[in-house]
Amino acid sequence: MGDSSEAGGLTARDVRLARGGRAVLDGARLTVPRGAVTALVAPSGAGKSTLLRCLNRLLDPDAGTIELAGRNVRGIDPRELRRRVGLVAQTPTMLPGTVRDNVAYALPAATDGDVARALRAAGLPDAFAGRDAAGLSGGERARVALARALSRAPEVLLLDEPTAALDADTAALVGRTLRALADDGVGVCMAVHDVPFAREHADRVVGLDDREPPR
Fold it and tell me: Tens of pLDDT along 113-130?
């Protein structure tokens, strides 16, 4: 697929981060090309979530280089970076109010059409916008969080265990949604421990060394 920096994607090289004298990341590498789904597979506690947080500077690593479209992310304003590189947490937080309020958060100029497009991209109907966010199921919250990230039209979308606690049918729907986003040119990276799901829905399945793990 070529170098991700040339295609506008995200590249991490030799990322290192220590906490409390323990190496959380020890030379992690990752390539997230645009127009493809990359699955980052590693055991729980291996540092997948930490690496995702480093990629849009919610954490700054001790060493290593992270580039977006060939530019070091340290030279990009954090607000711009987090618009261009969206992150959906494993347990997303819903804000008080409606689904529309959540999707349009920090986008005061967002129209109903903008919200509807983001909801549809996340596999939700337009009418969902009026639902009370406090009453959503876990799967619905996950997809609203996805719509919230998509409302900013990111170049790269990072997802931490996007199918955790979802039933098989909903997980498959999320997988198809991510496939459609990649087909539209978004670089998608999902950190997962479910290897069969990763192999079914991703173009690339890699470990923290950016290599395909042994089968």
Answer: 989 999 998 888 999 999
Cα–Cα distances (Å) from 96 to 12, 36, 137, 149, 166, in that order, read: 35, 34, 15, 17, 23
Q: Write the pLDDT tens digit of every residue in 25-78.
A: 999 999 999 999 999 998 888 899 999 999 999 999 999 999 999 999 999 999
Query: Closest Cα partner for 58 from 44, 27, 42, 79?
Result: 79
Q: How many alpha carbons fall within 13 Å on the CB side of residue 172?
A: 3
CB 46 within 8 A of CB 23: no
Per-residue model confidence (pLDDT) at position 188: 97
Distance, in Å, from the CA atom of 31 to the CA atom of 209, rounded to the nearest integer, reads 10
CA distance 79 to 62: 21
Q: Which residue has the tokens 């937080």?
A: 93
Cβ atoms within 10 Å, residue 94:
18
pLDDT tens by residue, 91-107: 888 999 999 999 998 77
Per-residue tokens: 114: 């903008």
Please give the model's pTM, rounded to 2 decimal places: 0.89
Contacts for 3 with CB less than 8 Å, ≥ 6 apart:
11
**Domains in the chain, CATH or no CATH each:** 34-46+78-206 (3.40.50.300)
As a whole number of angstroms, the distance between CA 142 and CA 128 comes to 14
User: Which alpha helices (DSSP H) does 27-151 contain, by range?
Assistant: 48-55, 78-84, 99-103, 112-121, 138-150
